[in-house]
Amino acid sequence: MSIEPSDLNLPEKFKEFRQNQLQVAMKAMSSKHYAFLLDSPTGTGKSIIAATVQRLLAKNVVYLCTTKQLQDQLINDFPYARILKGRSNYPCAKYLSMWPEVTAEMCNDGKETECGYKDNCAYKKAKLAAIMAPIAILNMSYFLTEINYGKTFSGSEYVIIDEFDATEDQLMGFIACDISAYTLKALQLEQPKYKTKFESWIDWANDTIKLIEPQIDSMEKDMVSPWYQPDAKTNRHLIQLKRFDSKLNFLVRNVSDRWVFYPTEQSWSFKPIWIAPYAESQLWRHMKKVLGMSATILEPRQAAKNIGLEDYEYLALPSPFPKENRPIEYIPCGNIIEKELMVALPLLAKKVDEIIRANPHDKILCHTVSYKIRDYLVAHVNTDRFITHQQRDKAEKLEEYKRSNRPLVMLSPSMDRGVDLPYDQCRVVIICKLPYPNLGDPQISKRLYSSKDGRFWYAYQTIKTVIQMAGRGVRAKDDYAKTYLLDGQFKRLYDEHPNMFPEWFKEAIIW
Question: pTM of the prediction?
Fold first, then answer.
């Protein structure tokens, strides 16, 4: 007897399982390995596969997203799930009139028993609901903070990681130590004398820890006094001190020649070259089983190595979309690299102009990869259809593009992920330049030149992003969009790493 979604009490909108969905869910659920990695192209139904795994397991699971937008999208599909976001997204019950300046983040850090408003705390209610729900939808950033400091979700039975190939970047963002002049001023701390010297900061960090930890102890002792009158400003300062202390302690324990230093006038950052040595302690030990899903895992050995994952099973699904609906045409306009830009950019602008003119009624997403190329196209392509953005107004401009009835052309250096443009919202995708990681970044340079598989990693990152870029426009079986690849470097990348491209992508390429 076949199983239908209704048999598993899944939402009514899911009338039947599409090809392979139930079988894949059963395979993931029964895997004997610590992690089950699923390459799941757009249209294969990652969310229904994950929800089916939860029903088959008959236990509560944690579902991790990379963005709040994806959290909201999931709750629409699975109303029995519950979303939990960071404390700063909830008002403080005691200071409701001061929202959003005062948030639940400024709570007295674990001493809620001193607060007469705890029964009305929006954050505590949301947290309890998420703990009790079949599916707790969290973003990765909050989850990392919670399992390492709050501990509530540490030890989770089963964790589903969406956009699994972004785990390395999420971990890097959590572990990297970023210090700004603004933060130091807010915490009333002096900067080190030699701010551009790596060693100077480590000595400074040790001295600063000795300075602020007694402050933290004193403030916490004051807070348990029956005479203490809590206020949001004091609580906020204590939270900031404790977070900064944790950051500095991690830095002095771990920093070595395997880290890189980014000094500027107003900010100073420290990052490990590779995140893998820290992944077990910061992530994997906090969960018992993992389902990792993405459209671009592509190379499981490299993906797992990047994040220190050893025990895994891997399955790659084909695209359910006909190749005729997602053609990828390679039209080289020279090598779009820095030393050849003077020659290549006029050719690129001419081709972009031709594509725009050939599609007068269609919306177009043009991946420029850099603001430099974006600005050149704005100056040298004669059209009134362009719309673009800065980092600060990206979301607003994207919504304007989607809502408009005009055949706009979105020029963007940063819409390779998390952007869904189905049907008439996008009929053409242009990839101006291969999105190679920036060699001007010392971390990337050291990865490429200081490890035996650096070149393989470099290609892997690029290919992942190309596939993500091409996938923004075709979101359903009956959808259609054409992608143009204009960078002459693509053929060489393909020839050097043909096995890294999935078959469903290769079959759509028109040479």
Answer: 0.91
